[in-house]
Every structure is written in C-alpha cells, then in structure tokens.
Backbone:
C-alpha cells in the first residue's frame, strides 16, 4: 500500500515550542472521490502564524486541532485528478499542511505558472508573505514619495518585500534586522537605504542616525523594544501597519510602552490579517508576480531538506535562524 508522511500537532506548547509538540506519521494514500485531486507537495511554507494556531486561545482563526495535520501553505503538483479543472502535471499552491501529499476538492487550490516564476516563490514574495507586505504598505501605510518608512524583521519573507516596494514608490526605506550579515543583505542586495542591527546594542542611536527626518510610517513585524524605539521617532500623523508581534509569540506577549507617542504625534495604527482581504489579492499578486518575473523584486530562501526537518526549522524561525523565506523541500 502506498503511503506518505505527515506531521501532526501532538501537544500544545507550554512556553517555547519543542520538537515533541509534533509527531511524524505515515498514512495511506487515499483513493479519490469525484471532484478531487491528489497533490504531491514539493515545498511547505513555515510561517510565524503557526505558532499562534498551536495555542487554544481566541484569535482570528480556530486553533490547530490536536492529532491533525499541522496547517501550512504548500506548493506542489497534481499527480492524479478526478476534477476537470485540474490536470496531472499542473503546478498548484494550496493549504495541504505539513504533509508530503494531500487531497483537495479544488477549494483554495490555485494553478500557478512556473515559466517565469519559480514554484517556491508562490509561497514567498508572490504568495501570502508578499501579499502581506503589499497590503500593509499600500492600504495602511500609504506612503508618499520622499517619506521615511521603517520595517522590522527586514530580511524576512514579509519585511524584504515591504522595503523594496517602498523604494519603488520613492520612499526612504529603513530596515531593522538581527545581525551584520542580514543587515548587509538588506542594504546591498535588496537596496534599502539603511538597516539597523538591533543586536548591536545601539538601537535608539542607530535608528536616529538612519531616520534624520523622523519616521512617517512603520510596518511592524516584531513588537517589544524594537517597536517602542520606532514609536519614539514618529512624525505627526504617522501610520502604523501592525502586521506581527513575533517577539512575543513564543513566550509572554510584549507590552507597548511608548503609548505617549500615539497622543503627541496623533498616530494611527491598524492591525490586519492578509487572508481577510481576498478581493485585493489579484491586484497585489499581479504587481508582485511581474516584479519577480522581471528581476525587480529580490528574495532569499532558507530551505530545510525534508519533512522530518520541519519542526527544527520552525523552532529556528521563531529564533531568527532563518535568512529569508523559510521553506521545507518535500520532494
Ligand atoms: P520572517 O521571514 O521575517 O522570519 C521571522 C523573523 O522574525 C526572524 O528571521 C527574525 O529576524 C525575526 N524574529 C524572530 N524572533 C524575534 C525576536 N524575538 N525579536 C526580534 N525579531 C525576531 O517571517 P515572516 O516574514 O513570515 O513574518 C514576519 C512577521 O509578519 C511575523 O510577525 C508574522 O507573524 C507577520 N505576518 C503577519 C501576517 C498578517 O496577515 N498580519 C501574514 C504574514 C506574516 P531577525 O533575525 O532579523 O530578528
């Protein structure tokens, strides 16, 4: 009997995620019903939101169920089809989870063209993370030419796109990232105007140097002291796209201390969840796809070699060990 591997949530984390929160299983390949397709997943996307789903708390989505396949975006290929909309060999992006194979009735399954865009990019710059950057920048920050924007976790899947899109709109783009190597990449390869290494210990002074005219808009991915330092540099009527608070996902939630800046600088902050805005995805993905296909939007990937390596890679993502979009190669 043909089988494939999948990873389920074995237990909910108490504090930091550990490998024993996950369990690897081997399951039989199911036979298809009419309307279904069988997909072999080539790549699994690891994303910070998975950490929040591992907890049984009120959130924008239901918690990940115990003993079920871990949620996750995947890119793969149709290997069997009983659905007239999909043919064997079609490349598809879907939500098949931490699993080598998956069955779908076609819902939320998107055919993609890999002639000019690599399959893996549909999980990064031309997928959910890219769309997140596009949404926060264009819909919430709405930067004007000449304004200064700051983005934290700047070398990552979302942050790297934010800064490049902002530069294309004539802004001064300043990143914040952990370590010299990540910062050098953000400036030299991605073309940001500056990048601050928050691990170097001079966050406030370095941020002041990099933002001589203050900050007009923030794309917040991290929270905690990084966010507070940015708030202290905000200009009047600044906008904040609150995208993520990763510094607090794997432990205690981070407080925002610099609340005074909201009053004195009359700031607007909006949290958002990119999946809630499906009507804008075609527009955003079109821009992102064109930019990647023409080499105007650069990206980098960290690729774990197999499904077995996914838990460790995920734990690493929450500690900043990834450099660019974190993926798992499945086949
Ligand atoms: P990244 O590729 O940026 O990887 C995560 C990065 O976060 C790490 O590489 C690390 O970078 C940084 N990081 C991790 N822990 C800490 C910490 N304690 N303090 C500071 N930085 C930390 O991930 P994504 O681009 O996929 O996601 C970035 C953010 O966007 C996350 O907060 C995520 O939850 C959010 N997000 C929100 C969405 C929405 O709809 N609202 C959708 C998608 C993502 P470094 O080494 O530079 O510190």
Residues:
């Amino acid at each position: 009997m043909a089988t494939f591997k999948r990873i389920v949530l074995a237990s909910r984390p108490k504090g930091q995620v550990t490998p024993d929160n996950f369990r690897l299983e081997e399951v039989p390949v199911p036979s298809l019903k009419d309307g279904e397709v069988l997909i072999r997943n080539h790549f699994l996307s690891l994303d910070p939101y998975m950490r929040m789903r591992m907890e049984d708390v009120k959130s924008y989505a239901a918690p990940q169920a115990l003993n079920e396949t871990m949620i996750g975006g995947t890119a793969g290929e149709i290997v069997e089809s009983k659905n007239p909309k999909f043919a064997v060999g079609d490349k598809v992006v879907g939500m098949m989870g931490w699993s080598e194979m998956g069955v779908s009735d076609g819902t939320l399954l998107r055919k993609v063209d890999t002639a000019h865009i690599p399959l893996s990019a549909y999980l990064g710059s031309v997928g959910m993370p890219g769309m997140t950057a596009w949404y926060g920048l264009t819909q919430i920050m709405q930067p004007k030419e000449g304004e200064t924007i700051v983005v934290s976790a700047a070398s990552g899947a979302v942050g790297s796109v934010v800064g490049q899109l902002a530069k294309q709109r004539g802004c001064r783009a300043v990143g914040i990232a952990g370590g010299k190597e990540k910062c050098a990449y953000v400036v030299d390869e991605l073309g940001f105007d500056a990048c601050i290494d928050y691990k170097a210990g001079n966050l406030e002074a370095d941020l002041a140097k990099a933002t001589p005219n203050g900050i007009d808009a923030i794309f917040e991915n991290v929270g905690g002291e990084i966010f507070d330092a940015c708030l202290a540099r905000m200009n009047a009527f600044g906008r904040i796209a609150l995208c993520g608070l990763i510094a607090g996902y794997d432990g205690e939630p981070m407080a925002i201390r610099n609340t005074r800046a909201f009053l004195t600088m009359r700031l607007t902050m909006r949290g958002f969840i990119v999946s809630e805005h499906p009507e804008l995805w075609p527009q955003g993905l079109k821009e992102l796809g064109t930019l990647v296909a023409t080499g105007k939007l650069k990206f980098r990937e960290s690729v774990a070699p197999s499904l077995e390596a996914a838990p460790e890679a995920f734990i690493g993502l929450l500690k900043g060990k990834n450099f660019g979009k974190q993926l798992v190669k499945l086949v």
